[in-house]
Each structure stands twice: as C-alpha cells, then as structure tokens.
Amino acid sequence: MFKLKILTGEKRIQYKPLSVAVKFLFEDKKLESTLNNTEKIFNIKLSELQKKNFLGKNDVLTSSRYDGKPDEVILYKVNKEKDFSPDYFRSKIAGLISQINKSEVRNLHIFIPSFKNFSEYFSSEEYFYRTFVEGIYYGNYYFSIKKEKDDVKELTVFLYADNDELIEQAISMTSVIMKGVNKTKDLQNAPSNELFPEELANRIKKMFDNEKVDVKVFDEAALEKRKMGGLLAVGNGSEHKPRMIIIDYNKDAGKGKKKIKSIAVVGKGVTFDSGGISIKPSQGMSEMKGDMSGAAVVAGLLYVISNLNLPIHVTGIIPAAENMPSGSSMRPGDILTTASGKTIEVDNTDAEGRIILSDGLDYACKLNPDLIIDLATLTGACVVALGSHVAGVFTKDEELAQSLFKIGMQTSEKVWPMPMWDEYHQLNKSEVADVKNLGGRWGGAISAAKFLENFVNPKIKWAHIDIAGPAGPHEFNNYNKKYFTGFGVRLLFEYLYSGGLK
Ligand code: BES
Ligand code: MN
Ligand code: ZN
Fold it and tell me: Which end of the chain, N or C, is less packed with Cβ atoms under 10 Å?
C-alpha cells in the first residue's frame, strides 16, 4: 500500500527521480507512427523486438530509460472495438498500481487520452476522468491484521488531461467517494471475532463527526420496546447481542419549507452467518463474515453523501445481528412477531437476512420516504442466477430498475432486473403465520425478494438489491480479486448524485 498523493499534472512536465510515465495508444492504422512519435516524446529507444511485439499481439510495453527521464515508460495498447468498456481504465490503472506496489517508484505520470475518443462510453467527461482516479484508489487497497506491517512508501500520481478544471474536480470528488468505498471494505473484511453488532455500531459512530449526521443505536431493551421481534430472534443465539443502527443525514433540512427529497437505505448487517440451528456446511463458511456487506455499504454511502453535501435527506437503517447456533437460538418451527405486527414462521434459520430486514424495512416505511432501497447478501440463488459479479435488482418500478441498470453500466457495479410477479408470493405461504421464511429452491432469490415485499408499504417506491455475489471477491476485473469489494457504494452514490431522486 502506498501513501497516495494525486495531483493535476503541470503543463511543463517535470520528471523527478524514480518516475514512471504511462500512456495509452490506439490500435489503429497509425499505431506504428504513434509508437515512433512516443519514442521521441519520452526520449526512449525501443528495440525491434519490443516494437514488433507491441504492433503484434502484446498490449503492454515497458521501456526503461535510454537517455533522460522518466526512468520507465509503460505503453498500453487500447482497442476500442475489442476489449473496451467503461471499466477499462479503472481496471487497467488498478492493475498497474497493485503491480508496482512493491517497487521503488515514487512518481507516476499518467497521460489521460482525449475524451472525444471515448464520449460514447461515458456519461460525461468528468466521469471519464473519475474512472482513472477510482482505479488508483482501488489498486492501492489493502487489508491485513499482521504483526509485521509492510512499510508504507509515498507515491505521487500526476494526471494529465485536456481539461484541467474537470480533472481537478474529478480528483477531489473521487477521493471522497473512494474513502467511503474503502471504509465499507474495511468493515466487510474485518473478521467476525472483532466485528459483532455492538462493534459495528461503534465503528459506524466513529465514521461520522459531521454536524449534519446523527447516529442512533438501539440496544436490546430498545429493540424490545419497539417490538422488533425479527431482529431479536435472529440475534438471540449469540453472546453478541443485536443492534439497530440508524444513520440520519440532513434530517433537519428535510423538515424545512423547501421540501427536499428523502431516501431510506436499509442494509443487512449479519456480522456472521453460521446458519444458526439450520447450520451451514463448514466449507466456505468463513465468507459469511461478509454477510454484513449491505450494512457496510449503507455506512460508506452515508459517509460519501454527507461529506459531499448532497441536497437530500438520507436515512441509513442497519439491523445487525450474529446468526449462531446455541441453546437460546431461534428454532425451525418458531413463529416470530415482527415490528409491523406481521408474523413469520421460521422454516430455516439460515434464511435469517429476510427476517432482520422485515424490521428494518418496517422502520423505513414508517419514515414515509420518497424511496426505499435495501441492500443485502441475501441468497446464494442470486449468485447462481447472475454470476458472482452482478447484483439482482428487484422492484416493480420499471423506471427505477432501468436507471439503476444504466448507472450500473457506468460504474461497473452491474445490476440486472429480476421479476417481481405476485404469483411468486405463494412460495412463502404459511399455514400458521402471515408468511414463511423459506420459499424453496427454485427461484430462491425471487421468493426472498417477495418475502421482503410483505414488509414494505406498497405506496412507497422500493428496490431490493441482492449483492450476495458482487459483495465478495471475484475475478472479473483487476480490483476485486482479493477482498470484499464495497460493491454498491459507487452505484447508489452515482444514482443519487445524478438526480435519481428527482
Ligand atoms: N447469507 C446467506 C446468503 C449468501 C450465500 C451470501 C452465499 C453470500 C454468499 C443467506 O443468509 C443464506 O444463508 N441464504 C440461504 C437461503 C436459503 C436457506 C433459503 C441460501 O442462499 O442458501
Ligand atoms: Mn443465512
Ligand atoms: Zn445470511
């Protein structure tokens, strides 16, 4: 990990010692002459072999110093027809930063190509620039609780772009966004022996010293008073007791005459999911430390929104519990009464997310916001359906589904709309309670979403996002291979920033 400094590149470039320059060349008819030109610009001498390879199959070329500075030049060959997407620069730059992580480089000069070549792929020039900055932060992320700490070196990154003002804005804004993303990832990657509901609440409190943010935590007594029987039941098997965490941003502005829009964001906060009495198989169970990813995204999102001062009222709602087997656990067959008054028949204690969300969504509805979005690592079935890098979005509001899909393509936090037909309700029917927490194997992600719908006021616009896949590490880009990913923070920030609530 580097201690990063990201700056706008000066017109007159000064290469200090230990510098690397990075440039992108288009794979077109002019590639050979561009390459010869590049040799002159950087005062480097490429070998015949290097040139031949780059003009042929290789799409990266590293050349060391010939006479002058920088010490090293890295050229990437971009083929827009072949492998380009809005994630291209984010992923390339992230890969580069993690690659040079152990090297002695101290100055990195990145030459951003002209936006006009890419305008069809990005919503704006500023967003195009932001993907480079995102890549830098992503490539630099690191999590460990080792005794031996790696020494942290400084890296200054200079970004050269056509538009100075926009790149400067992109750097400052993206730095806040990625700080939020990294905070989300730190919460997700923390092990469950350190991070249990009470500790999650403490860490979230510490994230906010902003006057406009108010963090409230309901302990067991408060949960009982509020009759949050779903959250209490799921948390009851653990020594670490459940909490409900409420993060309120811009609450007072919401009350004024000039009415601003309000959104409630609900995040599943299961700090460890053993399955409870319906215990999970041991293989891969350690991944369930990340079953509070929805909660972590809510906290990171509120961090970003409050630090960038968005003119909306946002309430983050986090039901947090540890799902454990013990003598005090809820059992299959139990019937729970939730805060809404509705009863749940517990058929499988491993379908615990939907139970705690029933109390979270009920709390959200009682605030009567303009929009509710919940995020949850809810079902393995959603990962079976869409793969590990895409989230399912469940909503009856087609416009909302479309906007989230579109923003997902920009941010490369991709979501895919799933059906919400009412016929699926029959899967959750119970003889003895209002609803059963298990819908069966087929369409498991959908029956889970339909279960949640029982606890949402139909008059309020609502989307459920199942992030069971993309919350965790996967191989689909250069920046999500190792750790829990923070998926959802950039997606929802971008949705709200680009006026999604209007
Ligand atoms: N937390 C899991 C879902 C999950 C699975 C998240 C894989 C991330 C990766 C959830 O609580 C769960 O256990 N779901 C069950 C539901 C089943 C019992 C109906 C599942 O998906 O198997
Ligand atoms: Mn579970
Ligand atoms: Zn779970």
Answer: C
Tell me the three state secondary structure of residue 398: helix
Q: What is the pLDDT of residue 22?
A: 98
- The yes-or-no answer on residue 92 being catalytic is no
Identify the DSSP state of 115: G
Q: How many CB atoms lie within 10 A of CB 357?
A: 30
153-160, strands of its sheet edge to edge: 2-8, 153-160, 107-111, 19-26, 72-78, 60-64
Give the chain's residues under pLDDT 50. Answer: none
> Are 8 and 171 within 8 A, CB to CB?
yes
pLDDT at 254: 61
What pLDDT sits at residue 233? 99
**Active-site annotation holds for 354:** yes
The whole-number pLDDT of residue 2 equals: 95
| Ligand 1 atom showing the smallest separation from residue 288 Cα | 1
- The dihedral region occupied by 69, where left means phi > 0, alpha psi between -120 and 50, and beta the remainder, is beta
User: Among residues 130, 268, 354, 414, which one is catalytic?
Assistant: 354
Coil, helix or strand for 364?
helix
Hey, how many other C-beta atoms are within 10 angstroms of the C-beta on 425?
Answer: 15
Question: Which residues line ligand 1 at a C-beta cut-off of 6 Å?
Answer: 273, 291, 348, 350-353, 377-381, 383, 438, 444, 468
Per the confidence metrics, is the pTM higher than 0.90?
Answer: yes
DSSP code at position 52: H
What residues does the ion ligand 3 have nearby, CB within 5 Å? 270, 273, 291, 353
The Cα-based distances of 417 to 20, 390, 411 in angstroms read: 43, 10, 16
